[in-house]
User: Which sequence fits this backbone?
């Protein structure tokens, strides 16, 4: 955010030039200004000269001192702008108004104004600029001095802004006299990042208040075009793919020593086969190191409920049917991991993959190792909110290789069986356990309260 230089050494011409340059730097932003005019009629000529220097989209005014007089309203019309006023007829002073550029379509929201009919306020909706925009902008002479942060009224005002997630952007005094300085003219938004520039413009020929202005990005932030790899399956023939996968030289895997080499060979052979039948195309569309398997086994060995003698846990070799069963359980609608092997093709060729995969998994169990290629996840950012603007608005999701999920599920099945058989987890532990949920916990708490109540506890 940038502020206009308001030092005593800055001339009015320098300030004027600075504001104009800021407006030129943000041509696609909504430029707006607010001024306490202290009578539109008496200083309207000066007001026109003042505004002619700054091509604002929206100008809002307080203390217009106008009446519902057609001649007066015609006198204060401004070329190139539509005008809306809310005037006091019975008493002197007050009144609010707004000039909105003819290039902007707007709708007056009297439904909001009628919520507090005795308050001098105007509300507008600017549709069409971006249908998804939820920008809220409030301007006005609030008459609460934010240069006195310890004042009770100022504290209450700041508290209200904080509760509703609003930010006041003006930081310099807006009403300066020989004896005082106050910051009572405010610009408030619901998104602190949408204001690209703000500042103060002296208006001594019109009012003892300075004008406040801002350049606001009311459009929803648009990201660069998104691209992703997709499989071209229009010419995919299942029978040809299965025939090709049946002829893959998976036998070379059995001659390798390292589980990493085995996985790399399996990934290479199978991914090249997929590429021949459903090639990838790049198209436009609108961590912590994992613990070693030996560390996991050591953790399982340390579990005990204090009553059952501790027994050593070890993974056994997996069976052909177990691997096949876990492949069948994989969801076909999940995203593809970094190995670019979709679950759909794994399930299609499961009869040819199950043998080499079983051999690799059993080799890993025997060596207490986990292949490096299966430790690497592809991170996909998922928006937490409707209009994400920065990294903090996303939740990172790790997408693992499909074949690593088979191995992990087989290990998990053996761990769960061991824990359940020996009752290593208490009955009140419900997290990530089959047949348990938050409902289980709530029912347990309810039952405990009922028992305690019956005992008079």
Assistant:
């Amino acid at each position: 955010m940038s502020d206009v230089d308001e030092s005593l050494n800055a001339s009015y011409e320098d300030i004027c030039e600075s504001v104009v340059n800021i407006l030129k730097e943000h041509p696609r932003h909504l430029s707006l200004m607010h001024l306490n005019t202290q009578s539109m009629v008496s200083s309207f000529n000066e007001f026109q000269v003042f505004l002619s220097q700054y091509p604002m989209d929206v100008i809002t005014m307080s203390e217009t001192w106008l009446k519902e007089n057609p001649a007066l309203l015609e006198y204060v019309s401004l070329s190139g702008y539509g005008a809306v006023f809310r005037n006091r007829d019975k008493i002197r002073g007050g009144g609010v108004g707004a000039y909105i550029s003819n290039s902007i379509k707007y709708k007056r929201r009297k439904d909001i104004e009628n919520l507090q009919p005795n308050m001098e306020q105007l509300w507008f909706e600017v549709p069409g600029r971006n249908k998804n925009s939820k920008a809220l902008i409030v301007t006005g002479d609030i008459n609460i001095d934010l240069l006195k942060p310890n004042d009770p009224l100022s504290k209450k005002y700041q508290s209200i802004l904080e509760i509703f997630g609003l930010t006041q952007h003006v930081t310099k005094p807006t009403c300066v006299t020989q004896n005082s300085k106050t910051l009572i003219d405010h610009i408030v938004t619901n998104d602190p990042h949408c204001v690209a520039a703000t500042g103060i413009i002296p208006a001594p020929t019109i009012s003892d208040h300075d004008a406040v202005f801002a350049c606001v990005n009311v459009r929803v932030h648009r990201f660069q075009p998104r691209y992703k790899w997709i499989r071209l399956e229009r010419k995919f023939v299942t029978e040809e793919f299965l025939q090709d996968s049946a002829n893959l030289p998976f036998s070379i895997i059995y001659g390798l020593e390292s589980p990493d080499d085995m996985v790399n060979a399996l990934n290479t052979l199978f991914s090249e086969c997929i590429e021949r039948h459903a090639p990838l195309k790049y198209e436009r569309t609108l961590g912590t190191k994992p613990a070693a398997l030996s560390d996991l086994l050591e953790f399982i060995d340390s579990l005990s409920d204090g009553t059952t003698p501790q027994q050593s846990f070890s993974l056994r070799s997996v069976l052909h049917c177990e691997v096949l069963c876990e492949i069948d359980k994989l969801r076909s609608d999940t995203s593809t991991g970094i190995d670019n092997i979709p679950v759909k093709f794994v399930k299609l060729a499961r009869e040819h993959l199950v043998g080499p995969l079983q051999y690799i998994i059993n080799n890993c169990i025997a060596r207490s190792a986990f292949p490096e290629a299966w430790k690497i996840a592809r991170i996909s950012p998922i928006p937490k909110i409707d209009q994400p603007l920065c990294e903090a608005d996303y939740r990172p999701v790790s997408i693992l290789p499909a074949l690593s999920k088979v191995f992990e599920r087989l290990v998990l099945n053996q761990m769960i069986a061991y824990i359940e058989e020996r009752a290593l987890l208490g009955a009140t532990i419900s997290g990530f356990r089959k047949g348990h949920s938050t409902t289980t916990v709530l029912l347990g708490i309810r039952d405990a309260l009922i028992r305690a109540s019956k005992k008079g506890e």
Summary: The chain has three domains: 2-220, 226-291+312-424, 430-456. DSSP finds 13 helices and 17 strands in the chain.
